[in-house]
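TICKET: design request
STATUS: open
ATTACHED STRUCTURE:
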């Protein structure tokens, strides 16, 4: 599944769960790092991204070093807050 196909699928999933006042945010350009949608009772759905896939995107697509990618991720993605619809970032237990 391409990044755009994944993005469209996630938009459909979110639309099924959203209430009329719910807002859901996406990280621009990081479609390949999306791993799903999370929900919790009475809360809006949230897009879930894989932390390692985000960092790998910056290394592979933006031609950053590992250190540059980690710095960029930490400052521009991990610390980003855009309201209650801010995406979740999953750090997998099976990855360092």
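STATUS: resolved
RESOLUTION: sequence designed for all positions
ATTACHED SEQUENCE:
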């Amino acid at each position: 599944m391409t990044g755009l196909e994944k993005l469209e699928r996630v938009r459909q999933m979110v639309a099924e769960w959203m209430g009329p006042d719910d807002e859901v945010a996406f990280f621009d350009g990081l479609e390949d790092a999306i791993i799903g949608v999370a929900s919790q009772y009475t809360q809006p759905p949230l897009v879930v991204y894989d932390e390692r896939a985000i960092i790998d995107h910056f290394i592979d697509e933006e031609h950053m070093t590992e250190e540059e990618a980690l710095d960029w991720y930490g400052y521009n993605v991990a610390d980003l807050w855009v309201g209650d619809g801010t995406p979740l970032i999953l750090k997998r237990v099976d990855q360092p």
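CLOSING REMARK: The longest strand covers residues 34-38. The chain has a mean pLDDT of 88.
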